[in-house]
Every structure is written in structure tokens, then in C-alpha cells.
């Protein structure tokens, strides 16, 4: 198969339509290239519930084994379960998933030993170059001695590790509705929450990579509707929604209202700081709420602002020795989880915080949700650079306004801020705005959109 790898090798992972853009023969070459680039003698692989995942994962394992690498297959798993295996076994890892993409997609998330990310600047470019060469000239030379391929179960160990990081034994009894979206949360949630003082109401726990009920992307409000309704019907204390590979978790309060990921970031940050004696660095990306650095400082911590994206967060976590990091997209990163992201661990923190007091979740998070936010608004544009320049021209030089270009363009005033970032893969600009009150946020949002859309 001759593939246009520029279409499937992204900044942080491999992702494309199967079999149109890639297939098992290409997956085998990716396995061989991963073995060569990491130089590892052993690796670990896992996969989600998509129909194409077992075949792709198996082909990758064959390619790596042919290069003399011993492969440990953990089979069906969430992405953070694969990170657990990479960390606990100290092995490079490959996770076969396309996260929340539609059923015809699949992909590979790669990491080095200890769940360290592999992206364009940390090995993915070299892997792509090898696969391109071999796809044109034939398979690579095999090793003199092939590696072994063995199976290993890690689900119970993963669940035990997570529960060791958050004490839930003394919480009051809670009722939680969990929407797995037919994704890997249906595999991990029963094990992680087993034996805790919880009544779990499961929704869409059947593993089905065709996503028959709704897209497994809780960032889209349309995909939270079923969960919100069920929380209200059940009189539950909260709802949890996981994406397809269950590395992200979204939270709904007892009224069925979504809880901002920034509020969850602030809540978990305060708990992690308390667990570390009121000291530590907390990472947040530049479009999380102002409330996040405020709460971090109020609890004795040091906030560090970064670009959006897990590779930047994980790199800064490692550099600064941060204890926790959070993003607006509901990715949550923990030092005690090899700096990797795990929505499940964030969910345990929310359960512990809620169950450790008598109030409602909406009352609990109110202290962490202090401003009016727009959420992310996408606009299709003909020329990203020209529209960004137009925004700069509209605001540059105004009294009391500062501009910075850490990631896209951020415009900040005393009572509001907004950020505009170009998409790396689509002709889009992404706007996020926040202000001290709803009326100001609406005004600033609409003013920025008018410039963006010309």
C-alpha cells in the first residue's frame, strides 16, 4: 500500500480512515519503525473497541517483533490504562485508538518508557520517514532473532494504582450516572469504581466502536444531553462522561448542568496542593479560566501558563516537576501518573471532594467557577494569518490592553480576555473569551467574532 503519510501522521499521533488511508500492512511498518526509533528491547501495546483495532494492533506487534523486540499485548484498554502499563513496566507503548473520531477512523498514540510522549519533535518524524521509505522499497530487514509476543492483563493493577492515589473509603454514599459512550469507559469504570460507596448508573457501557448512541466526544454539548437528562431523572449526585478512549472525563452536576473543566482543574489542583503540603507547581493552558491560577495561588501553589496541547503540558510537567496540570478540553495530568493524562483519576478526585462534605456538587464547584466564559467557538476563514493580523490591528495600542503570542493571539484587559488560535489541520480559527460578567463576555465575544469573520 502506498500511503500519503502527510495526511495521517499528525503533530502528536497517527490518525486516519481505515482502510482508505492506512491498513494492517502499514501498521506493521509502523511497528518496525517504532522498534528502530526507540531502540527498545521490549514494548507494550493496547487497543480500543473499534472494529479495526485488534487487527492493526496485532500487525504493529508483528512488525516490532520482527525487529527483535519483545511485545507485551494488554489487549482492550483505555489510553490511560496503556500509559499505566508504560509507566509501571517502564516500556515504550503504542495505543490503537482514534479517540472520539467516527468509527471508520483509527490511529496510534505512541509513548516512550514511563509514558513520555512521542510527537513530531520527539521521534514521530523519524518514524514517518522510515515507514515512507519502507512502503516504497519493501519491508525492513528482520532481526536475526525475532522477539516474542505475549499477553498480559493490567486492568486490576491499573484500577488499584488509581485508587491508591485518592482515598475514597470514608466518603458518604453517592449516586453517579456514568456515560461511557460505548467507549473504553465501559471497560475501565466497573473495575476502578468497584467496592466504593457508590451507586453507579451505567449508560452505554457496551463496547461498540460504531458508536450507536452518540459520538464519544463529550466536548460537544450535543453528546451530553442523554447524561444530563438521566442525572435529573435519577436524582443523582453527579454525572460523568468519558470520551472514546476514556482518557478525558467531563462532569455534570446534580442539576444536569455541565461543570467547566477549568473548575475541575481548580478543584483538583487545590486537592493535589493540599496533599503536597500546600506547595507545588500547577500547569494550566492559556485558555483555562482566570480562576485556575487564582485558586492555585490561594492554596500556596505556583501556576505556570502553557500552550494548548498534551505535548507542551507533559514537557512542562517534566521540566518544572509540576504535581498536576489541566486543560480546557478536560485533559488532566498527574505527576503520580507519570505526568500522563487520566480522566479517571480526575473523576476520583471529584467523587472524593463531593463525598467528603454534605453539599451539592454545584455548590462545591461554585467557588472555582468565578467568571463568564464563551467556550470554544470555531470560525471557518480563508486566510488564518490575515484574520489574526486583523485582530491584532483592531486591539493593538488600546489603553489597558496587552497582547501576547504564546499560542495564537491573546488579548487581555482588566476585566476580560480572549484568545484566537489557528487549527493545525483545518481552515479554522478557535475563539475562547472570558470576562468578569456575562454581559461583558458577550460583548467581547461578539466584537472578536465580527473581526474574525470579516
Automatic annotation (TrEMBL):
What sequence ranges are listed for the domain Alpha-D-phosphohexomutase alpha/beta/alpha?
Answer: 7-136, 156-256, 263-371
Gene3D superfamilies assigned to the protein according to its UniProt record, in alphabetical order: Alpha-D-Glucose-1,6-Bisphosphate, subunit A, domain 3, Alpha-D-phosphohexomutase, C-terminal domain
Keyword Magnesium assigned: yes
Question: Alpha-D-phosphohexomutase C-terminal domain spans which residues?
Answer: 376-449
Q: Which SUPFAM superfamilies match?
A: Phosphoglucomutase, C-terminal domain, Phosphoglucomutase, first 3 domains
Asked if the Swiss-Prot or TrEMBL record annotates the protein with the keyword Isomerase, the reply is yes
What is its cofactor?
Mg(2+)
The domain of life for this entry's organism is Bacteria
> Keyword set for this entry?
Isomerase, Magnesium, Metal-binding, Phosphoprotein
PANTHER family xref list: PHOSPHOMANNOMUTASE
Q: Which family does it belong to?
A: Belongs to the phosphohexose mutase family.
The protein's name: Phosphomannomutase/phosphoglucomutase
Q: Which organism is it from?
A: Streptomyces incanus
